[in-house]
Write a structure and sequence with these properties.
single chain, mainly alpha, Four Helix Bundle (Hemerythrin (Met), subunit A)
Length: 194
Amino acid sequence: MLPSIEVKENVSEQRQKIHPHKFTMWIAIGSITMMFAGLTSAYIVKRQQPGWISFEIPRMFWLSTTAMLASSLAVQMALKAFKDRHIKSYKNLILLTAVLGMVFIILQILGFQQIWKTGLTFSGAGAAQFLYAIAGLHVLHVFGGVITMLVMFLKSLRKTSRSYNSVPIEVASTYWHFVDALWVYLFIFFLVIH
């Protein structure tokens, strides 16, 4: 009688613990948050120096924000579809998330080109250096998320045994929502501070 009680308690304890992949993701999110907090703080400090040249937010950044928000909705719907075992919807939505991520990246590049044409180059003084560094690092993080979504899409195409473990899509969607929220923060930051 006693061993079955111990087994039930052990199972209950396991359910309360965070999955190691989720824990690792939260550590990574914390590190990335600290990096961007440091960069945006440096931006605030540096803009007080003489010779600071401000910039206008490119129109493409508004469009890229829309694409990023839509991709966050798509990945959330993909997670729900996976948990409901609607695999066809899951495949379509995870691919849509990746496509919207690529649209975001393309729109960011077009926005950088608009800034570059105004004469604010990476080697110049002022806000452009920070904009290229901060937004460029964010684009790299989004690109990593796009690769992850594409890998998950390709895995969903396999006809072999299927695993209904939702941890990978939960981790990926958490990361995707994070890069989405991070861009919204950065976009508002540049709107207010520039």
